[in-house]
Amino acid sequence: MGIHRPTGNHLKAAALAAGALAITTITAFSAGAPAAAQVSPPPVPVKGVIESSATISANSIWAVGVRAGRQRRPILAHWNGSTWTLISSPALPANGDLHAITAFKGGLWAVGSAGDISAHKAGQHLILRITGTTVTRMTLPGPATGGLVSVTADSAKDAWAGGFVTTHGPFLLHWNGTRWTRSPIPADKGSFSIAKVSADSPRDAFAIETEAGHQAVFRWNGHAWKRSAIPAIGSAGHTFLNDVAAISGKDAWIVGSSQDRTLILHWNGTTWARVASPSPKLHGIFRDSLDSISVVSASNITAIGRRGRNSLAEHWDGHSWKVVPAPPVIF
Question: What is the rounded CA–CA span in Å between residue 108 and residue 248?
């Protein structure tokens, strides 16, 4: 089943500590009661931002991000149960960043951007395959300018990467076990929206547009992407779809924000419906938002976001969403 494991993917759930960055992960939840978030392992010994992590076991955790400083450089780090190792490889670009990482049987995929990605120049799509300690930069189809921010793998022969193409809107790539190919989606051309994607099988996946004004959801049926209708959820300029998790063909979730309140949508196999979620808004100054979703099982799901300047975590136990202790997050 292609689900988001509780690894911190797409969270930017990192805390500054002693000049380094700690990865915040969510513990597994015990039956009947959610457990609090914990910071483990200790900080990655590098200044920068850890944007995503993938936990294979207690003795194998991978983290990706971007180094701080005038020149943006990607971070790829591995935890072996006792120490962090910063991975150096010719496959890593001198300039760029890594935004997301996911594990599959036999390896990992990491995605981001390579090259000068300043305000006046565009980077290139970047996908790395990690097998053991070998890092390989993949050959990708054009157009190459833009960035990738999301990756999901259902198996070694089925993976998706989502992001954007400079000035042309959301962008999706598919891995068939041999090569990466572009997969067109019926999105609005010319928008600045970014695609995030989650798959549970080769015949079932969801992608979302993440920018305000483009609240579009797409479903993959094994052959093509089709728009998937969602309920009216408020003013377009104040609604954001931030992350998606596909559990099965009859169970998927989207988290985000609408009108400065948390937003959760659920797919039951036929339609999307809004689900009640706590939104303890603070004085109306900052918007409440859910930015990432992590799934252990259909009745054990965690969403993480922000509550004003503080972090916010909510847990689904199969019946309702409740606020639970949240890890520290730097926004």
Answer: 22
- The counts of H helices and E strands in the chain are 0, 27
Low-confidence ranges of the chain (pLDDT < 70): 1-40, 117-122, 144, 167, 188-192, 212-213, 236-237, 280-286, 328-331
Q: Which amino acid is at 56?
A: I
Token pair of 112 as six digits = 């981001």
H helix or E strand, kind and range, residue 79: strand 74-79
Structure confidence at residue 328 (pLDDT): 62
State the DSSP code for 44.
B
| CA 144 – CA 126 distance, rounded (Å) | 9
188, 216 Cβ separation under 8 angstroms: yes
Q: What is the C-alpha separation between 12 and 325, in angstroms, rounded?
A: 17
Bin 298: left if φ > 0, else alpha if -120 < ψ < 50, else beta.
alpha
Residue spans of beta strands (DSSP E) within 105-203? 107-114, 124-131, 134-137, 146-155, 158-165, 169-175, 180-182, 195-201
- How far, in Å, CA of 38 to CA of 50, rounded? 16
Coil, helix or strand at residue 247: strand
Let me know: does 303 contact 313? Beta carbons within 8 Å: yes
Residue 140 in tokens: 């990708």
Torsion of CA 331, 296, 214, 191, to 10 degrees: 70
Tens of pLDDT, residues 286-316: 678 999 998 889 999 999 998 877 888 999 9
Element (H, E) at 17: strand 14-17
As given in the structure block, the two tokens for residue 58 are 């207690």
pLDDT at 3: 45
75-122 pLDDT, tens digit per residue, is 999 999 999 999 999 999 999 999 999 999 999 999 999 987 655 456
Q: Contact at 8 Å (CB) between 182 and 176?
A: no
